[in-house]
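Pasting as-is:
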Amino acid sequence: KADKERMSILKSMFNHEKYEWRKLSTLASVIGLDEVNTKGLLILIGARASETNGDTWGLISKHPINEIKTD
């Protein structure tokens, strides 16, 4: 149950137009977990790390990963 509440808080943090990207340390601090466990919950809610700054996370629905072509 605590994880569901934490995931709800994380989602709400991303649903602000000014703060679509968030620092991992901020996310972890707000939900009271370490960064490793916070990353697990972020994946579950559909978030990803920035490709240029791995310490910053955003929702995949707002920031999809571009398909990489190897041809």
